[in-house]
Write a structure and sequence with these properties.
By secondary structure, the protein is α+β, with helices and mostly antiparallel strands. 41% of the residues lie in helices and 23% in strands. The protein contains 12 helices and 16 strands. A 7-stranded mixed sheet has the order 5-4-6-3-1-14-15, with helices on both faces. Helix 3 packs across helix 5, helix 5 packs antiparallel against helix 6 and helix 11 packs antiparallel against helix 12. It starts with a helix and ends with a strand.
């Protein structure tokens, strides 16, 4: 069975399981179940791993994420009520909210349902019609690994909440709506990368996202390499305080440089020569943050060129430079991430390795020549625990399409086919 066949079989199996749970949770007679089963719908949205371009998104720079086949799934049926009731299969918990009076709470998010409620709030603010529903939720995205389970939940929820008769905004616009949900309703001041990757992913490709103009361009991944994610077993621990501090440092740097350099409104507008001319007026820690962002933007563009040319040696150098910069200049790596990268780069066939995501735990992303995936897994399993005392996990992932609805056939069974989403460009 080839990879596509395996993925389709997994899709059908997961869909059937969720649809069965939705059916069994219905408080109705057997006759009524048969009558309404045809209204069951199924949506999914992928997590993401970022190949390169860390912390550049909120500086309006470039990022290069991949939507991956670790996904959030919602099986649901619409109802004629202005509220949502959703059960998480993973934690066996049901939560609900109403559209009436929906507004951000002081202190931000408290529960997983807030990501769904926040998406409903942001969609309503954008003038999109909402549909209430009851459903069941499941996910194959490891929680705490930095693979954007929250963005995937937001994008899956945006499909379940949408009026199926209405035109859907473009992927870029829908990502911005979901970003607003996370920024304002949930209280996480993230950039747009995670939502954009989940909304607009393309099979076999990374997405070069220009965060200044909110535009994505597919970048094909060489067919002779695999993407392998290594989870350190040390949860992503970058709290809002540390994240917001780094964001403030970058904004301060842009502001100070902009006082001398016309046209600078963000670090996206700063090049190395400009940074050198103004470094003496920047606090040292701010200068280090700015240096990372300026060079990381350059590395993203160089990585796109290396992917296009199949230059595996260049990819290795670019990933190594990014990891060192995140460790030494942006100071968001961790001993566990550093050990994981060191182990991976010692394995023949590993092309490139670096930390990915916000840091302070979480995952590394690795480009691996076909046939070397198992050697990497074995080396990590054998050596990582010895150095850290933690249990790692290793996932070979595939680049997949963005959020979509899965066709549900007769009897509520998934056909495994995605329904085309109609976008209003």
């Amino acid at each position: 069975m080839n990879d596509t066949s395996k993925q389709n079989a997994g899709t059908s199996s997961r869909a059937a399981e969720l649809l069965a749970k939705l059916n069994s949770s219905r408080d109705a007679s057997a006759d009524e179940r048969a009558r309404v089963e045809g209204h069951a719908r199924l949506v999914r949205a992928p997590g993401r791993v970022n190949l390169i371009g860390e912390y550049t998104d909120f500086n309006l720079g470039f990022v290069l994420p991949v939507a991956i086949d670790r996904e959030v799934w919602i099986a649901f049926e619409a109802w004629d009520r202005p509220d949502v009731e959703l059960t998480s299969v993973e934690i066996n918990e049901t939560r609900s909210f109403t559209f009436d009076g929906l507004a951000p709470r002081a202190g931000g998010s408290a529960f997983w349902i807030d990501y769904v409620a926040g998406t409903a709030w942001a969609m309503s603010r954008a003038g999109l019609p909402l549909c209430g529903f009851r459903g069941v939720l499941n996910s194959t995205i490891p929680v705490g690994a930095g693979l954007s389970s929250s963005a995937a939940l937001e994008m899956a929820a945006s499909l379940a909440l949408a009026d199926p008769a209405a035109l859907r905004p473009s992927a870029a616009a829908m990502a911005a709506i979901a970003q607003q949900a996370e920024n304002t309703y949930v209280g996480v001041n993230c950039g747009i990368m995670d939502q954009y990757a989940s909304a607009a992913g393309r099979e076999g490709h990374a997405l070069l996202i220009d965060c200044k103009i909110n535009k994505a361009t597919p970048a094909q991944i060489p067919t002779n390499v695999s993407i392998v994610v290594c989870d350190t077993g040390s949860p992503h621990r970058l709290g809002s305080s540390a994240y917001n501090t780094r964001r403030s440092e970058c904004e301060l740097g842009a502001r100070l440089i902009g006082e001398r350099e016309p046209g600078v409104t963000s670090l996206r507008d700063v090049d190395e020569a400009m940074l050198a001319r103004n470094r003496d007026r920047l606090p040292e820690v701010v200068a280090r943050r700015c240096e990372h962002i300026v060079r990381e933007n350059q590395r993203v563009m160089a990585t796109v060129a290396a992917l296009r040319d199949g230059d595996l040696e260049a990819l290795g150098h670019l990933f190594a430079a990014s990891h060192a910069s995140l460790r030494d200049l942006f100071e968001v790596s961790s001993p566990e991430l550093d050990v994981m990268v060191e182990i991976a780069t010692s394995v023949p066939g590993v092309v490139a390795s670096r930390m990915t995501g916000g840091g302070f735990g979480g995952c590394t992303v690795n480009l691996v020549s076909h046939g070397a995936e198992e050697a990497l897994r074995e080396k990590v399993v054998r050596d990582y625990s010895t150095h850290t005392g933690l249990g790692p996990k290793v996932y070979t992932v595939a680049a997949v399409d963005g959020a979509s609805e899965i066709q549900v056939g007769p009897g509520g069974r998934s056909t495994g086919a995605s329904r085309a989403i109609v976008f209003d460009e």
